[in-house]
Design a protein that fits this description.
Blueprint (H helix, E strand, L loop, with lengths): L9 H15 L12 H10 L5 H14 L3 H4 L4 H8 L5 H19 L7 H5 L6 H12 L8 H9 L8 H11 L5 H14 L12 H6 L13
Helix pairs in contact: 1-11, 2-8, 5-6, 9-10
Amino acid sequence: MTCAKKNMLKGERVNYILRRLQSLYPNPPVPLDHKDPYTLLVAVLLSAQCTDARVNLVTPALFDRADNPFDMAKVPVEEIKAIIRPCGLSPQKSKAISVLSQMLVDQYDGEVPADMAALEELPGVGHKTASVVMSQAFDIPAFAVDTHIHRLAQRWGLTNGKNVQQTEKDLKRLFPKESWNQLHLQIIYYAREFCSARGCDGRICEICSTCYPQRKHPKKVLKP
């Protein structure tokens, strides 16, 4: 007679998750098409409440019109809005892109600052957007928490999920700093492929079922 597998302890889950995600996604690409820190910043701003796939359909036309702060600051806001309309929230996003471009010209000689506080002062750039730019454009450790990461961190028992700020703090405490930038992308790719909101309830996908083989009921997830 074999004994039923036990649920993993938190330290065991952390080590297993790191190993499994690294084996699945050893070199995860940034899902938003870009060529430099500025185009990444604009693409991440556009991705708010919009899919990366749709952003990637919209940005070629936008960047053909202007792909740097100096040129973008000269484009009328209405023109920007017309181009980015498919991404949603175009009135707010177009104004933010225009104003932040002018701010980059005036305050940073057209360069995107590699500084979290400076990025968060730009219009339309919240903590998550700034974290993505810091990690993916400048390779400075940051752990941007989106809805995918917030949901999976709860399913994997890594946070109590009260809010994204707490989730970010918990994940930074659990995982090595040198893993943050890649792990952010790895979790997103895993969520999309195996542990989506409808595809897994905390008991179905490989990581959930391995970490919690004795979980009998769906894992309730608190929204951010």
